[in-house]
Design brief:
About 55% of the residues lie in helices and about 15% in strands. It is an alpha+beta fold. It has one domain. It starts with a helix and ends with a strand.
Length: about 150
């Protein structure tokens, strides 16, 4: 009889308020887990935003440099940097500056001016650089500007 009374007491404890013991702790842990995933998502989003901002800044610097080259061509009245003494002198300076990160802010930058065949007043200015976050040469960024003089 005593064993049966103990069994009934244990059952009544389980069915009563003690059956909910520990549920609040589990709910708190699940809430913390969900919150942690949210914070990790925000950190990943911020990382992406920083990369996009750096890429945008580099592209802006490249466009500014291409604009400088194009304005020099307009001033000289020619796109032929080989046969024009004024442009030839500036071309050497541009080549030195494009590869200098402190001058242009572009990492491993190169400048290529291609005069379009069959025309005397049209050229493509191509600036290539490698953002610091990218390790391989295949991940280079490129900006091309076409200059057409009147």
């Amino acid at each position: 009889m005593m064993a049966r009374a103990r069994l009934m007491t244990a059952r009544s404890r389980l069915q009563g308020g003690n059956a909910q013991r520990g549920i609040a702790l589990i709910e708190a842990l699940v809430a913390m887990l969900i919150f942690t995933f949210g914070v990790l998502g925000l950190i990943a989003l911020e990382s992406s935003a920083i990369n996009f901002a750096v890429d945008s800044e580099d592209r802006n610097r490249a466009a500014l440099f291409a604009s400088e080259v194009a304005s020099a061509m307009w001033t000289a009245g020619s796109v032929d940097y080989v046969n024009n003494a004024q442009l030839a002198a500036q071309y050497a300076n541009w080549q030195a500056n494009i590869n200098n990160p402190t001058t242009t802010g572009l990492n491993k930058g190169t400048l290529n001016i291609a005069v379009i065949a069959g025309t005397t007043k049209t050229a493509d200015i191509t600036i290539t650089w490698r953002p610091p976050a990218r390790a391989t040469a295949s991940a280079n960024s490129t900006l091309t500007t076409r200059v057409i003089l009147p």
